[in-house]
Write a structure and sequence with these properties.
This protein is about 30% helix and about 25% strand. It is α+β, with helices and mostly antiparallel strands and about 425 residues long. The protein has 2 domains: about 220 residues, Enolpyruvate transferase domain (UDP-n-acetylglucosamine1-carboxyvinyl-transferase, Chain); about 210 residues, Alpha-beta prism (UDP-n-acetylglucosamine1-carboxyvinyl-transferase, Chain), CATH 3.65.10. A 4-stranded mixed beta sheet has the order 21-22-1-23. Strands 2-15-17-16 form a 4-stranded mixed beta sheet. The chain has a 4-stranded mixed beta sheet with strand order 4-5-3-14, covered by helices on one side. α1 runs parallel beside α2, α4 runs parallel beside α5 and α7 runs parallel beside α11. The mean pLDDT is about 95.
């Protein structure tokens, strides 16, 4: 039986609190720790279903992973060539990051592997990754050439490439980087627009020779990864729901502690500030090579904007909650360059358009854009389409709506934000 939420208007958010660790960094920390020489200790690991699936896969591949306490992992690395074949398929669950990055890593191994996932992940396109990896010499067989399960044929000699990802996708770029670690020579990977650089930064922190800047990475194969300690900051994608809620709900004043503010992830902060949002960065510092800070957020009267397209790659996961902000801003907000949202856990443009219209907001969309005219929200029955970010976005919208809102199929929130309901309620949201 699926999990449904009911939500209604909040009187305001207050308090100081933390959100779970960054999902993107948690995935990569396990992967690099497994391939490193020595023992890697991870602090602040996201205890979500997606990241646990990635850790479970590496256990199947012969990596010992200890769990000394919640949000911690100790990874006993096996080195670049120490993974062992699994006798079972490798289940990524709902983790698109896990499947795409593992494709790049596993295509360089001496053994075959099969990657599978849940019903949602099995409908997400993989050809964009497969085609680029095949240019390096990989052999990957997919259902209809595009969907999981993926049969990854080992024993291939990968060659270095000069290649463009073709899409602004950190997952495609990262898959190529994992493969390039095993290629005999230097690869250069470029992007049509810069995306988050967590993989590059973690390569560097593990001692791999890599040179990178916005939209370009240069990497030589055949290096070594040296284990170390990793402290994972709070996930700005998770924080975005509370940031937006505090901006929208009168009387709100909250502080979110220890949030990662990597410049390639802060598009949502820039967008909300352009709308007039009062977001104050406090105690900015560096933690394990990543910039972190506390964020104080207070209720603000938001104004509509034309979202700069340059911000979209740096807020692609936060677009659904941005649409909620636009629905309550004064005026008409326009956003373009959103085609990537069509191929997430759900078609996030279609999911958000349908839900906002049900709540009384005028929305228009094209294959890669939305136009949202701010208005008054009223309660409605919303289908989240088993998409965690859709569910949480409408949980926030309901805090500003008249009447009660029913949000269906919220089970997958646990993939990225375990404990969301409890934290939301403690902050002042009305959510059951």
């Amino acid at each position: 039986m699926s999990l449904n939420w009911t939500a209604s208007r909040s009187a305001g958010l207050a308090g100081s609190f933390q959100v779970p660790g960054d999902k993107s960094i948690s995935h990569r920390a396990v992967m690099f720790g497994a391939l490193a020489e020595g023992t890697t200790r991870i602090h602040g690991f996201l205890e979500g279903e997606d990241t646990r699936a990635t850790a479970r896969i590496f256990s199947q591949l012969g990596v010992r992973i200890d769990i000394p306490d919640t949000q911690s992992r100790v990874i006993h690395g096996v080195g670049l060539h120490g993974l062992r074949a699994s006798t079972e398929v490798l289940d990524c669950g709902n983790a698109g990051t896990g499947m795409r990055l593992l494709s790049g890593l596993l295509c360089a191994q001496a053994f075959d592997s099969v990657l599978t996932g849940d019903a949602s992940l099995s409908q997400r396109p993989m050809a964009r990754v497969i085609g680029k990896l095949e240019a390096m010499g990989a052999r990957i067989t997919a259902r209809d050439g595009n969907y999981a399960p993926l049969h990854i044929h080992g024993g291939q000699q990968l060659k270095p490439v000069v290649i463009d990802t073709g899409v602004a996708s950190a997952q495609v770029k990262s898959a190529l980087l994992f493969a390039a670690m095993y290629a005999d020579g230097e690869s250069v990977i470029t992007e049509p627009r810069p995306t988050r650089d967590y993989t590059e930064a973690m390569l560097k922190s593990f001692g791999w020779p890599v040179t990178y800047g916005p939209g370009r990475v240069q990497i030589r194969g055949g290096g070594r990864l040296q284990a170390g300690d990793i402290r994972i900051p709070g996930d700005i994608s998770s924080a975005a729901f509370f940031i937006t809620a505090a901006l929208l709900i009168p009387g709100s004043d909250i502080t979110l502690e220890n949030i990662g503010i990597n410049p390639r992830r802060t598009g949502i902060l820039q967008a909300l500030r352009l709308m007039g949002g009062r977001i104050e960065v406090i105690n900015a510092r560096e933690q394990g090579g990543e910039p972190v800070a506390d964020l104080r957020v207070r209720h603000s009267d938001l104004k509509a904007i034309d979202l700069p397209e340059s911000l979209v790659p740096d807020m692609i996961d936060e677009c659904p909650i941005f649409f909620v902000a636009a629905a309550l801003a004064e005026g008409t907000t326009r956003a373009r360059g959103l085609a990537e949202l069509r191929v997430k856990e759900s078609d996030r443009i279609a999911s958000m358009v349908a839900g906002l219209r049900a709540m009384g907001i005028a929305v228009e969309d094209t294959p890669e854009s939305v136009t949202i005219t701010g208005g008054i929200l009223h309660g409605a029955a919303i289908d989240s389409h088993d998409d965690h970010r859709i569910a949480m976005s409408f949980a926030v919208a309901a805090q500003c709506a008249s009447g009660q809102t029913l949000i269906r199929d919220c089970d997958n929130v646990a993939t990225s934000f375990p404990g969301f309901v409890d934290l939301a309620r403690s902050a002042g949201m009305i959510l059951e």
